[in-house]
Amino acid sequence: MTAIPDTEALPETATNARRVALIVAIAFFMQLLDSTIISTSLPQMGASFGVPAVAMSIGITAYMLTMAVFVPLSGWLADRFGARNIFLLAIILFTLASLACGFSQNLTQFVAARVVQGLGSALMTPVGRILVLRNASKSELLNATALITWPALFAPVVGPVLGGFITTYLSWHWNFFINIPLGVIGLALVARFIPGGREADPKPLDWPGFFLTSAGLACVLYGLERIAHPEDGVLPTVLLIAAGIVIGWLAVRHLRRAPHPLLDLSSFKVLTFAISTLAAGTIFRVAINATPFLLPLLFQVAFGLSPVDAGMMILAYFVGKLGMKMVTTPTLRRFGFRSVLVINGLIASASIMACAAISPQTPQALVIVLMLIAGLSRSMQFTALNTLAFADIDAAQRSSAATLSSMLQQVAMLFGVAVAAVILNLSQIARDRPALDLVDFRIAFLAIGAIGLVAALRFLALPPGAGAEVSGHAPGN
C-alpha cells in the first residue's frame, strides 16, 4: 500500500529521522514518567479521597486494562486516519486526562480519568513507533530506536525521586499537573515537524479480531498482575490467565483466516522479528523486567535498608543503563546483532545471577559495580532487540508489527514481575517461614538469571548477518 500525504512530507534525511524520534521520545517520557511517579503518592491520594491506600490500586488496574483493550486497535486507526493524527489525539487524551486526575475529588472521578489516560497511552506507544519507522531509513533506524528507548531508561530514575519530592513539598495533584507542559510541548512539536500521511486503501475494521484480541490480552495481563498479590486469591487468577490463553488462541485462529485481519501476523514469518519479539526476545524481557521488581525488595526486605538508601543503590542500576547508550551503536556496528545479543545477553543474565551472591556484608562498592554492569547490559540488550525487531519489516507490515511488539512487551513486563513474585512465594512456602528472607531472593535471582541464559543462547538461531543493513555490520569482519 502507498501513503497519501496530508501535508508535504519532509525529505527522509538523518536529521529528520532524529527529529521525529526525539519528538516521539518526549511523548514516551511523559507517559512513562506518569507510570513511575504515581506509586509514590498513592497513600496521600487515598487519604485525600477517604479510602485505604490499597484501594488506590484500582486506578492502576483500570489504566492497565484500558491499555490492553485498545492497543490492538492502534495500528488500524493509524492506517485509517493517519499516524500523526492519532499520535496527536493520544497526546491530547493523555494530557487532558492528567489534568482530570489532578483535579479529581474522589476515587470514582480518578478512576474515570485513568481510563481515559489508559486510552491515550494505548494509542501513543505503537503509533509513536510507526511514526519513527515511517520517517527513518534502515541505516537511520538504530539511532532512531536508541532515541525512543531512552525514556524507558530515564523515567524510572527520576520518577520515584521527583514523585516523592512533589508529594512531600507540594501535593500529589502536581504529579499529574507536571504532564500538562510536557503534553503541550509534544503537541506543538508533532504538529510542526512530523509529516502527516494515511494509507491509500485502509482496511475495514475487523470487529471480531478486535474483540477477541482485546479480551484475550486484558485477561492475561490482569491475571498476571494479580499473581503479584496472592492475597487476592489463586482461583480467579488461574481462571483469568486460562481464559486469556483460550481467547488468545481463538484470536490467532481468526486473524489467520480473516480476509482483512486487524493484525497482520505475517510479521512473525520474518525471522528477525519473530526471534526478537515472540521467541527469545520475550523470554529475555521477562528476565530483565523481573530485576527492577526484585532489587528494591532485596535491599529493603533482605538487607534492611531504608527506602532512600535502597533508592541510591538502584540509582546505579539505572545510571548504568543510561551510560550504555553512547556505546551501543558502535558496538552493534562492529560486532553485529547476533554476537551482541548472545554475548551481552550472557553478561546480563550472569549479572542477574550474581545478585544472588551479595549480602548486607558485601562491600557497597562491589554492589554498586554489579548494579552498573547489570544496567549497562540491560540497556544494550533492549536497544538491540527493539531495533532488530523492525530491521526486515516492510512498509505494509509496519502498523501490525508495531502493535504486536507493544502487546508482547506489555505481557513480558507483567510476566516478569509475576514470575519473580511466584518464585519468592514458593520459596517462602517451601521453607515454611512467615516472612521473606535473603535465601528466597537468592533462589529468585538464580532462577530469573537462568531464564535469561536460555534466551541468550536462543539468539544463536539468528544468521551472522541479521540486521546488517541496519547496524552497518559487515559479517566476517
UniProtKB/TrEMBL annotation:
**Which compartments is it annotated to reside in?**
Cell membrane
Q: Does the keyword Cytoplasm apply?
A: no
Q: Does the keyword Transmembrane helix apply?
A: yes
> Where does the chain cross the membrane?
20-42, 54-74, 86-105, 111-132, 144-166, 172-193, 205-224, 236-255, 267-288, 294-319, 340-359, 411-429, 441-461
Any idea where the Major facilitator superfamily (MFS) profile domain is? 20-467
Domain of life of the organism encoding this protein: Bacteria
State any GO CC term.
plasma membrane
Q: Which GO terms describe its molecular function?
A: transmembrane transporter activity
Pfam families linked? MFS_1
Q: Which terms are listed as keywords in the entry?
A: Cell membrane, Membrane, Transmembrane, Transmembrane helix, Transport
Q: How does it sit in the membrane?
A: Multi-pass membrane protein
Q: What PANTHER family does this protein map onto?
A: BLR6921 PROTEIN, MAJOR FACILITATOR SUPERFAMILY MULTIDRUG TRANSPORTER MFSC
> What is the designated name of this protein?
EmrB/QacA subfamily drug resistance transporter
Organism, scientific name: Mesorhizobium sangaii
What broad taxonomic lineage does this protein's source fall under? Answer: Bacteria, Pseudomonadati, Pseudomonadota, Alphaproteobacteria, Hyphomicrobiales
